[in-house]
Design a protein that fits this description.
By secondary structure, this protein is an alpha+beta fold. The chain has six helices and four strands; from the N terminus they run ααβααβααββ.
Length: 182
Amino acid sequence: MDGSKKRVASLVGALGLLCATGIAVAASASSPGATSDLHLAARMLKMHNDERARLNLPKLKWNVHLEDEARDWAQELSRRGRLDHADRAIRNGTGENLWMGTAGNWPVETMVGMFIDERKNYRHEALPNISRTGNWKDVGHYTQVVWRNTQEVGCAVVTARGNDVLVCRYWPAGNVWGQRAY
């Protein structure tokens, strides 16, 4: 089997995995020629939805447009060599989680798992009183993952300058002042 046939077989298999596990891809997110790694997308979406299921929250759908935006920002952050949130105006109403670590040492389950691990400091109150530490930003990644009104997610990992950079974009954004996550 030549390389292009292997790639098609891999994408078909990943699409089957998405369907077989009940992971939905947002209908609005289809884009011709999308080159996303469906296996990676399925793994990241599963991490998000497993935590949401634990709380009886609706599943998120994968959005390849958000994934593309996340990849663009991850590439920019890789060039900068540091994490900075994109300006809200650029994000068009989306939320954003960022992560960076030494290249090749972290599976995506660990990366996304670090967002979810913030739950240990979470208090179920209205933002900003949501953290046992007194700083809402200590649980802000977690609350974005489980924000009830968030419906879609797209994430991308970019490797450059010795680091892996993960960016996840969420629509609509969570972490709304004065509201509870769920």
